[in-house]
UniProtKB/TrEMBL annotation:
Transmembrane segments: none annotated. The lineage of its organism: Bacteria, Bacillati, Bacillota, Bacilli, Bacillales. Pfam families: HTH_18, Response_reg. Residues 3-120 form the Response regulatory domain. Residues 444-541 form the HTH araC/xylS-type domain. This is Response regulator. Keywords: DNA-binding, Phosphoprotein, Transcription, Transcription regulation. PROSITE patterns: HTH_ARAC_FAMILY_1, HTH_ARAC_FAMILY_2, RESPONSE_REGULATORY.
Length: 541
């Protein structure tokens, strides 16, 4: 519903207008009133009414001044003048001020209703025209954008001669007649983990990536007259950005576009957490050469795939083929042999040397990934990590480690991650080996000295001397493996044997004491009670 602001210094007039005019029936609502022109201007700024009805002669600011001030803000606001003076000068001044309705006081209800209805009708018609016009322009913009994208897709796949290009269609789309064209291909790296995701999640990632690309292009190209860009979602993983420069307006800004391409890659990696292979073709004169720039961008993407990701590779016509590099296969084979023979110290040294050779060799990223994946699998198989039952609940399997390697976007990142994994696996393998040796030493103490010599007086110092190991080391190792100090474990074993002898009923307590290695029967009884809770005689009963 349209709104009206009433401005008059006569309270009687305002009260009459409020009381006697059926504003609701006319289809309007009184949004406020003011007692003079200055207050009316303040109320207009505050309330933003659709229509203003004002007196002419008021203190501080008259109706004409108020009209001029309002139209300085919005010249389309309709103003209805109320005047108590029947003179031609006021009417003529009102018309010259852009006021189309002039009423003499006191106006009849029919006059006011007629004028307000006419103003409302004009407002509604104007709004309908604006809405239709705005819709037309929006639809035209959508049609033009759709036509531009279809035109660009056609140029990427079809080779035209200059005379075959649709000139009128190009003009209707708002594209320059003579254009410099250049293609940037952004290929999203969809890792194995992404393939396993729900397809809807991947499509959301693509949608977000498209928004980032388009918003950044729109923002950055505002400052580049004669330069525009089309962002095409070309395949499930590829976006193609087509840069268009008007040759007649400005020079083509190659450094700017290279920097913009790198910024696009950086934004995708930062906000969508997706790695990108980016290739930039050469700038070409004429729409018919866009296909050449696009094919060049694909060649640059292949170079990106073989080297470092998340940077822009520009196609170069003068690029010299890289010399063939030989993978150090002998070093790789020797490392595999050392792994399967579990010579862990040699494995560590050989890996360090091989990693240094790989870092300096300039090998393609897929080749390095294959070498590292093979070494990782060999380490996993040769070590106890291959037994999933020995993995903790938070430890990852081989598949997760290989997937992490496949996500590396550069040789340096790959070798750094592989070096970290090798260090952890070697440490784990050495700990396992050390642990097995430790268990074997403690098992020997139990088997050869405790179980066979429990009836003799034997100390840990004597055992350590016999095994040629440090006494303190053996003591700590024994407690770590068994959970008990040597003396406690030894005495428990002796008391267990004593209980077996007591149950036979053939021996006296002092005899059993000697039979299990205690030369003092009183001390034997004390130890027996501390372990079982009973004295030997009580246990017998």
């Amino acid at each position: 519903m349209n709104t009206i602001l009433l401005v008059d210094d006569d309270d009687y007039v305002l009260d009459g207008l409020l009381r006697h005019i059926p504003w609701q029936d006319i289809g309007v609502r009184i949004i406020g009133t003011a007692g003079d022109g200055a207050e009316g201007l303040r109320k207009y700024r505050e309330l933003k009414p659709d229509i203003v009805i004002t007196d002419i002669y008021m203190p501080e600011m008259d109706g004409f001044q108020l009209t001029e001030a309002i139209h300085a803000i919005d010249e389309s606001v309709p103003i209805v003048i109320l005047s108590g003076y029947d003179d031609f000068a006021n009417a003529r001044k009102a018309m010259s001020s852009g006021i189309q309705h002039f009423l003499l006081k006191p106006p009849s209800l029919a006059e006011i209703e007629f004028v307000v209805r006419e103003v409302v009708q004009q407002l509604n018609e104007s709004r309908e025209r604006d809405t239709l016009l705005s819709s037309y322009f929006r639809q035209q913009a959508i049609v033009r954008r759709t036509m531009r994208e279809a035109f660009a897709r056609d140029l990427l796949t079809t080779r035209y001669r200059p005379e075959e290009l649709p000139g009128q269609r190009i003009a209707f789309m708002g594209l320059p007649d003579n254009a410099v064209v250049q293609a940037l291909t952004l290929s999203l790296v969809r890792s194995n983990s992404s393939s396993a995701r729900d397809e809807r999640e991947w499509q959301l990632l693509r949608f977000g990536t498209g928004n980032i690309v388009r918003e950044l292009l729109e923002t950055r190209l505002e400052s580049q007259p004669g330069l525009s860009a089309l962002a095409l979602e070309y395949t499930d993983t590829d976006f193609v950005v087509v840069f268009l420069g008007d040759m007649e307006e400005s020079s083509y800004p190659l450094p700017f576009l290279t920097k913009l391409s790198e910024e696009l890659v950086g934004h995708i990696l930062q906000y969508m957490k997706l790695s990108v292979l980016a290739g930039l073709g050469l700038a070409k004169n004429g729409y018919h050469r866009l296909i050449d720039s696009y094919l060049e961008s694909l060649q640059a993407v292949e170079k990106a795939e073989m080297n470092e990701w998340n940077r822009v590779y520009a196609y170069s016509e003068s690029a010299v083929p890289e010399p063939e590099r030989n993978v150090p296969l002998e070093a790789v084979r020797n490392l595999h042999d050392a792994i399967f023979q579990k010579r862990w110290q040699q494995v560590e040294g050989q890996w360090k040397r091989l990693a240094g050779d790989l870092a300096c060799g300039g090998f393609p990223l897929p080749v390095l990934t294959g070498i590292c994946a093979g070494i990782m699998s060999a380490m996993w198989t040769a070590s106890s990590l291959a037994d999933s039952s020995k993995l903790g609940s938070e430890e990852e399997g081989l598949e997760a480690h290989l997937l992490r390697l496949s996500r590396c976007g550069s040789s340096s990142m790959l070798l750094e991650r592989m070096d970290d994994a090798m260090s952890r696996m070697l440490e784990r393998s050495q700990e396992e080996l050390h642990g097995k040796k430790s268990h074997a030493l403690v098992d020997r103490v139990i088997r050869e000295f405790i179980e066979k010599g429990y009836d003799q007086e034997i100390t840990l110092e004597q055992i350590a001397a016999s095994l040629h190991v440090n006494r303190n080391y053996l003591s700590q190792l024994f407690k770590k493996v068994t959970g008990e100090p040597f003396v406690t474990y030894f005495n428990k074993y002796r008391i267990q044997k004593a209980k077996e002898l007591i149950r036979t009923g053939k021996y006296m307590v002092y005899e059993i004491s000697e039979m299990v290695g205690f030369r003092n029967s009183t001390y034997f009884s004390q130890v027996f009670k501390s372990i079982t809770g009973y004295s030997p005689s009580e246990f017998e009963r």
